[in-house]
Amino acid sequence: MPIDFAIALPIVLWIALRLTFPAGPYEMDHGNGAAKGTFFPLLILYQVFFYVIAGLGLGGAFWNWNYDENMWPSVFLRAAAFYALLLNGLLLCWYEGYLHTRYPGPARPAASNYTLNRYAANMALAFSSLVLFFAGAIWAAREMAK
Structure pTM? Predict the structure, then answer.
């Protein structure tokens, strides 16, 4: 079933990434604490990109749901939009937490709280969103071409 694939993809990717990546520690900012806030411009770019994926995924799902009998491309597109929005929310939340724990005040930087689990979750959600978006878009285009 395609819905099983859409649900299992980020979980399987997270497990695979969790087992293959080194233990860490991981940093969000560049320079190991010497360059506070350097991830912020990348965060904006990631968020814009994945908001576009979410918007196009929901628009494509709505269009496919209304104009085609096959609902599975719509499921893939909605799952892509959900994972893109989840990634945006988690990335922002984790970066805020990272800033508060890594740079607690005028003292020297503290240890990073950006763990391997969080890094693997970000990668798994991003890759799942992209794979499901392109799979759903290609599937919907093939269905419309028939």
Answer: 0.89
